[in-house]
Amino acid sequence: MTDQKCVLVFGIDETASAVARMLLLSGYSVAIHQPAPPTTLRRKMAFADAWYDGAAMLDGVQARRADLSSDFLIGLGNRMFIPVLTHPLAEVVERWPWDVIIDAQPPRERRRERIKSYAELTIALGPGAIAGADCDLVIETFGPDVGAILRSGAARTPSRSEQDRSLEDSHLAAALETGIFSTGRMIGETVSANEPLGVIGVTEVVSPVAGRIRGLQHNGRAVVAGVTVADVASNAATQVSGTGKKDQLIARGTAFAVEMEFAGWTPVSFEGFR
C-alpha cells in the first residue's frame, strides 16, 4: 500500500495534533489513536473535533475519524488525511506493522505500560516515561530545551512557575454540577464578563472575564462538577486557533528524532571531551 514509514500517535490534544501534522508533512504515513472522547478545550488548535464531528482541519491538514478499516487504509495510503482510530489499543497496535509509535498524551492521561516493544522506534513526549526503559527516546516539553531529544532518563517535570506560564491569559470556567454541557458558542467569539458560555442542566456557565473564547468543551459532552469547560483570553491578540509556537518546537524535535533514527545518524557525544 505504501513504502513510507508508518507512525501511530497516541493522543489528540494540541501537542499530539502538532506532532501528527508535522510528521505527515515530513512524508510519513500517520494515524492518531484516541479511544475515549477527548477533553481538549482548545479544539481549534488540535484535531480533537474529528472525534466528535468526523473531520477537523489544523493549519491545512485534515484528520478524519476512521471507524472502518477502509477509511484507515485510504488515509494511511494516500496521506490526504490523518485517520483517527478509536478502537482498543491492542487492536490498533496489532492491526498494522507500525514503524514508530509516539506517546503524545498529557502525562496525567499517559498509559502506565511500557511502549518500547510496540514498534521499531518508540518515543514519549514530556515527563513520566524513561528513555531506554519505557521507550527509546523522550522529547522535552518544558524548560529552555523544548524539543530536545533524550536517549536516557526522563524529561524534566515543569516547575510551578512553568505550569503557571503555560496558563498565561487563560481565565477558566468550571462546571458547577455534573451533567451534559450544552453550548451554542464558538471558539474565537468575543464575550463580556459574566456572559453565558453554556449550560449544564439549568445552571449557566459564565465567562470569568471579558475577552475571546480560547477553549470550549464540545457541545453535548458529559462533564463532572469541577472540571474546566471553558478558557477565555482577555488579550485579543492571544492565539485561539492553529498550532502554537511551543507545540511547533516539540513537533519539529520529534520529526527530527524520527528522521535521525531511520537515517542512521550517530548522535554527537561530548563524553571525555577536554
Describe this structure in words.
Helices cover 22% and strands 27% of the residues. It has 274 residues and is an alpha/beta fold. It has 2 domains: 6-159 and 244-263, 3-Layer(aba) Sandwich (Rossmann fold), CATH 3.40.50; 170-233, RNA polymerase II/Efflux pump adaptor protein, barrel-sandwich hybrid domain (OB fold (Dihydrolipoamide Acetyltransferase, E2P), Beta Barrel). The strands form 4 sheets. The protein has a 9-stranded mixed β-sheet with strand order 3-4-5-2-1-6-7-9-10, sandwiched between helices. Helix 3 links the parallel strand 4 (61-65) and strand 5. Helix 1 packs across helix 6. The radius of gyration is 19 Å and the shape is globular. Mean pLDDT is 91; it is low at 268-274.
Which secondary structure elements does this structure contain, and how are they paired or packed?
Layout: E1 6-10, H1 14-25, E2 29-33, H2 49-53, E3 55-58, E4 61-65, H3 69-78, E5 82-85, H4 89-94, E6 100-103, E7 121-125, E8 130-131, E9 137-139, E10 149-150, E11 153-154, H5 160-166, E12 171-174, E13 179-182, E14 190-191, E15 196-200, E16 203-206, E17 211-216, E18 221-223, E19 228-233, H6 245-263
Parallel strand pairs: 1-2, 1-6, 2-5, 4-5, 6-7, 7-9
Antiparallel strand pairs: 3-4, 8-11, 9-10, 12-19, 13-15, 13-18, 14-17, 15-16, 17-19
